[in-house]
């Protein structure tokens, strides 16, 4: 695992306190070769879809320059999370994750983005989006980095990318894969009750309402689409709470771990996950 912090070079992408695309291209080519083309392609696609470079990209990029205290917090959190991270993963799982983790200034492609860069699996952490979303604290940074590495671990040592179609199997599989990444995160942190989403009593609410979440998820499976699902993402709500699918997925994977080990779980195919889900639906939850 390689860790790279380009924060010392980020401000070279600005001129007079304002973002300069030409300077950014020099910065990205020097600090993260290969990532520039990916960001530019993503930006152009987004603009072509109707978003405005001047109104929706530049304000976020300029705010990154102006927010020095928040930048410093994000850099501090980045190092707190990544220092010794490889050793903690090896200590818990017996093997590392072959990936690069890069803190960089992107073009609003995402706070956390797992993508190949020059043939290497790379976790790109966009400072501008981290600050916009106020994700510079330890919990959010842990979620950005360790959660994404959980998906990478699943991909490198198991079956992450499963052809499930768009029906109920797709959402059962998503519940499983997000649960795998959440449990990976908990194991690396060393706390089986850790949830990076736990703000404002979120975990306690989910715990008290887990039966309701589980039953609603099951009922929704036959009609759920990416546009109507209400379980995955902090921008959707189940009874006023976001990310409830991550909590339910964690409970699902913890249930499966009662009868199997983690490295077998990551190799599960759709049939095993489907069977496990039906057993989980019938289980008593405390």
What does this structure look like?
This protein is an alpha/beta fold and 286 residues long. The protein folds into 2 domains: 2-157, no CATH class; 168-282, no CATH class. 57% of the residues lie in helices and 9% in strands. The protein has 14 helices and 6 strands. The strands form 2 sheets. The chain has a 4-stranded mixed sheet. Strand 5 and strand 6 (120-126) form a beta hairpin. Helix 9 (168-189) packs across helix 12.
Explain briefly what this protein structure is.
The chain is of the alpha/beta class.
Which descriptors apply to this entry?
14 helices, 2 domains, 286 residues, two-stranded antiparallel sheet, globular, alpha/beta, 6 strands
| Element-by-element helix/strand order | EHEEHHHHHEEEHHHHHHHH
Largest sheet: 4 strands, mixed
Write down how many β-strands occur, each being a DSSP E stretch of 2 or more residues: 6
Radius of gyration: 20 Å
Which structural class fits the helix and strand makeup?
A: alpha/beta
Work out the helix count: 14
Summarize the topology:
Layout: E1 2-5, H1 7-10, E2 14-15, E3 18-19, H2 21-31, H3 35-48, H4 53-66, H5 68-82, H6 85-93, E4 100-104, E5 112-117, E6 120-126, H7 127-132, H8 138-157, H9 168-189, H10 202-208, H11 210-220, H12 244-256, H13 262-265, H14 270-282
